[in-house]
Structures are given as C-alpha cells and as structure tokens.
Design a protein that fits this description.
Elements (H helix, E strand, L loop, with lengths): L5 H14 L12 H11 L11 H10 L5 H11 L4 E2 L9 E5 L7 E6 L3 E6 L2 E6 L5 E3 L3
Antiparallel strand pairs: 1-6, 2-3, 2-6, 3-4, 4-5
Helix pairs in contact: 1-2
Amino acid sequence: MRVENWESKLEKVIQETINKNTWRIGKNDCITFPTNCIEAITSIKVFEKKYKSLKDGKKLLKELRSKDILDLATRTAKEHNFKVIDIDKAQRGDILYYVNNKTDLNGTLGVCIGSHIMFNWSSGINLLTKEQCKIAWRIE
C-alpha cells in the first residue's frame, strides 16, 4: 500500500537522484534508484544487498540465483505482491524494465514519472517512453 504523502517522498528521491553528480554502482545506479523509489512510496525495503562493482553485482545475482536484473526484479515483485500490469497502464511510481543490450546485465529498471520512464544509467539520467519498455509492475 502506498504511504501517505508518497508523491512528495517519491519526488524527493527523483530530485536527489537527478542532482547527484556521480553515478556509482551500488550507491546511485539502475538498481538503487528504483528500490529507493519503492521505499519512498511504500516504506518497504525490497533490496538491501550491498555491492560495490559490476563484478560484485554479478556475483550477488549468482548468489541470489538470478540470471539477470529482470529475473531478480520478477522474483522481488512476486515476493512483495507487485503485480505485472500493461505497459500503457503504468503510472507515476510504477517500475518498468527496459531491455538494453548495451549493458552487462541485458537490461535496466526505471521509474514512471508521468508520461516518461526515468532511468539512472552510467551515461546519466535518461527518459524513455512507456512503449519502449518490456514489463511494468504496479507498486502498491
């Protein structure tokens, strides 16, 4: 269930992410951004594992028996009862997955901020349309 004032809490996380100058794996990346947004919306910490490098991240995925970010996101969504929804029904605060073969993990997670999905990549903040994404989860 979304907490009281979730909109302002989500906006705070979005602005903090935009204002950070440095993209850092395990601190300010494509996993920490969506999980921080989920926590702001629901007060639930869905992912607390620590990693400091891509190598650590891949090792962690292996330890968690996940083949990639999509697999991890799908399992986490099931554990927390976040339902898969039609991409076009995604609304502010929902999490979406984008297939990105340019990354070492084959994809990335972003957060619906209205008409676009915000992603935090090593190249910076990127906005994509919902239609470019593959899967969406309702965060409630």
